[in-house]
Specification:
By secondary structure, the protein is α/β, with parallel strands linked by helices. The protein has four domains: 48-146, name from scop, CATH 3.40.1690; 191-371, 3-Layer(aba) Sandwich (Rossmann fold), CATH 3.40.50; 377-447, Helicase, Ruva Protein, domain 3, CATH 1.10.8; 458-639, Up-down Bundle (Methane Monooxygenase Hydroxylase, Chain G, domain 1). It has 22 helices and 14 strands. Helix 19 packs across helix 20. The termini are far apart.
Length: 663
């Protein structure tokens, strides 16, 4: 048997598996549990008190004292009286097994009784002994004894606590099975892609963003060919900050870097540094850079760095500890401190650069700040090409039209449109995705799902029709309003109707353009006033947009003559931390007055325009009630050809999506 055991053990060790040791060799933990349980069992059952029987005073007086069976009585701690029987008086036959027990005490007490007070017990005992002779008197002794039970009541819980902490400390040192979860708190949770591990994403998958790709690819090229740069004395940037709106491809760009750089790549989210325990974030930062330096040259990617990179002093206003601040301080030290940071490049991404600490953005830490803007028409076409590859398309799909009808859309929005179009085509049991599926998907994403089953009264439907017709007529006759695509009174999302525009991609907006846009937004409210001589609550969204736009013109853009070229806009976001406004009460009153005047002027201008074109307004509303949706061709039949129609887009995009004035 011995040879057989050794043979199996040797065989198991050769493949790093082997036989498991016997159960008795699993460690000392089971021994501690067994020892604690045995001591508890021993102290309970070896206690002499466990062999005694609790009796009453009447039993003691009538059955023990009167027949002269009692040898002596010991009063313990002035609370309990233990009765010892005379040797010539054996116990009952059925109790012999108990007396002969290994843990029993042969000379121990047979009975016990709880006494109220010593004086009362002595008086009762004297009365019971009145008929006995002096030679047969009962010996009464008083003793003080420490009970194991009373000791265990406080010693046993203390021992369990000590045992638990000893057990946990052993696991923290790696002595227990399964490792120690607490010891991992200070370790970095970054995911690592080792050198030679090819990522599925490359720069070919990043459509558009040509300027951003050039700068990021320069970092990758430095890691591959450092001699080209170092021979001229150039130094690679220590950090690259990717800044842009959500969905513009910041994380995708980082994944492409991981696929192209061919160096160890560490990726982590900024929120993973912060835990409920103070000091964990700073410890994880140190551990992350330690691992990156060991595998130098390497790249660290921190997504959503604003989670830990907020401006110090503001991030902890409503917090009871400075965990985020200590994490940021450690990050600043690792990026550019006394310690060397050779060969480690940090790439970070955020869509909130205004809240980042200035020390984080200074040269020497994040040397480059790359802005990823919303794609232009040409870039949107490239993005559509990427996301249309896995789809089975019909011949009528025009990528040029798709790019033109999606101004202000990010890469994530375009990916969502392509996926939604495929779902719509599959829902209709089509064999390929057609152009109309993309148009329907675009409307679904921008405006919400159609709710044709929503039941509204004829009166409400009539109001909605004139409301949307008012938007359309005003937009058609104002030259600075975006091109009108269609009008619908089919409920979508929270709106009962919608007017669809094709925004021009512009970088600046003039005062005349602002005023025309305000008139177009007020067209629905004014149409109700002109036709029904009554207004409703359906223009809430329109009024909200108009009010915000008027305040922006007066307080931000300096477009009001009375207030003058003054702007209270704060690009740093610090005014949000202030309890008051950055201007006086007198200035606030003037701003409110000018905003009210702007809105009233736009309202009166819109009203005059609709009164002039009331016939067209009524015709369009009747057509909406009949067809529910009116396209551009029908609009031209009623309103005529729009002279200022321009569908050619400019060279760059803006941040506006197709506008949908909602009822």
């Amino acid at each position: 048997m011995k040879k057989r055991w050794n043979k199996k053990k040797t065989t198991g060790s050769s493949n790093n598996g082997g036989l498991k040791p016997p159960a008795g060799c699993m460690g000392s933990n089971w021994f501690y549990f067994f020892l604690l349980g045995w001591l508890l069992w021993f102290f309970v059952f070896s206690n002499p008190m466990s062999n005694t029987e609790e009796i009453s005073w009447n039993f003691l007086r009538d059955s023990l004292v009167a027949p002269q069976k009692v040898a002596k009585i010991e009063v313990i701690n002035r609370e309990v009286a233990e009765i010892y029987l005379k040797k010539e008086e054996p116990s009952e036959p059925e109790d012999e097994d108990t007396i002969d027990n290994f843990f029993s005490v042969p000379e121990g007490p047979r009975y016990r009784i709880t006494i109220g007070s010593v004086e009362t017990f002595e008086n009762k005992l004297q009365q019971a002994e009145a008929n006995l002779s002096a030679a047969d008197g009962i010996e009464l002794q008083y003793k003080t004894r420490t009970s194991w039970t009373s000791i265990l009541t406080w010693l046993l819980p203390l021992g369990i606590i000590i045992f638990f902490w000893v057990y946990m400390l052993r696991r923290m040192r790696g002595g227990g099975m399964g490792g120690n979860p607490f010891s991992k708190f200070g370790k970095s949770t970054a995911k690592i892609s080792e050198k030679g591990t090819k990522s599925s994403v490359t720069f070919e998958d990043v459509a558009g963003l040509q300027e951003a790709k050039v700068e990021v690819m320069e970092v990758v090229d430095f890691l591959k060919n450092p001699e080209t740069y170092t021979q001229l004395g150039a130094k690679i940037p220590k950090g690259v900050m990717l800044v842009g709106p959500p969905g513009t491809g910041k994380t995708l760009m980082a994944r492409a870097v991981a696929g192209e750089a061919d160096v160890p790549f560490f990726s982590i989210s900024g929120s993973e540094f912060v835990e409920m325990f103070i000091g964990v974030g700073a410890s994880r930062v140190r551990d992350l850079f330690k691992k990156a330096k060991e595998k130098s040259p390497s790249i660290i990617f921190i997504d959503e760095i604003d989670s830990v990179g907020r401006t110090r002093g503001q991030a902890n206003v409503h917090q009871s500890n400075d965990e985020r601040e200590s994490t940021l301080n450690q990050l600043l030290t690792e990026l550019d401190g006394f310690g060397p940071n050779t060969g480690v490049i940090v790439i970070a991404a955020t869509n909130r650069p205004d809240v980042l600490d200035q020390a984080l953005l200074r040269p020497g830490r994040f040397d480059r700040s790359i802005h990823l803007e919303l794609p232009t028409k040409a870039e949107r076409k490239e993005i559509f090409e990427v996301h249309l590859k896995p789809l089975k398309l019909a011949p009528n799909v025009d990528r040029e039209v798709l790019a033109q009808l999606s101004p202000g859309f990010s890469g994530a929005d375009i990916a969502n449109i392509c996926n939604e179009a495929a779902l719509i085509a599959a829902r209709k049991k089509k064999s390929a995705v057609e152009q109309e599926d993309f148009m329907e998907a675009r409307d679904r994403i921008v405006g919400g799902m159609e709710r044709k089953s929503k039941i509204i009264s004829d009166k409400e439907r009539n109001i909605v029709a004139y409301h949307e017709a008012g938007h359309a007529v005003v937009s058609w006759y104002l030259k600075n309003v975006d091109s009108l695509v269609k009008v619908s009174i089919i409920p979508r999302g929270k709106s009962l109707g919608s007017t669809w525009y094709l925004p021009k991609e512009r970088q600046i907006v003039t005062k005349a353009q602002f005023m025309d846009q305000m008139c177009a937004l007020l067209g629905g409210r004014v149409a109700e006033d002109v036709i029904f001589d009554e207004i409703s609550s359906g223009a809430l969204d329109d009024l909200e947009k108009v009010t915000k736009q008027a305040y922006s013109m007066v307080a931000y853009y300096g477009l009001d003559k009375e207030i003058g070229p003054i702007s209270f806009y704060d690009s740093t976001g610090r005014n949000n931390q202030m309890l008051g406004k950055p201007y006086s009460e007198n200035m606030a009153e003037q701003i409110d007055k000018e905003v009210q005047q702007l809105v009233n002027d736009a309202y009166q201008r819109t009203k005059n325009l609709l009164i002039k074109h009331r016939d067209e307004l009524e015709k369009l509303a009747e057509l909406l009630l009949e067809q529910e949706t009116v396209g551009k061709k029908d609009l031209e039949k009623i309103l005529g050809k729009r002279k200022m129609e321009e569908l050619v887009e400019g060279p760059k995009g803006d941040n506006k999506k197709p506008s949908i004035p909602q009822s």
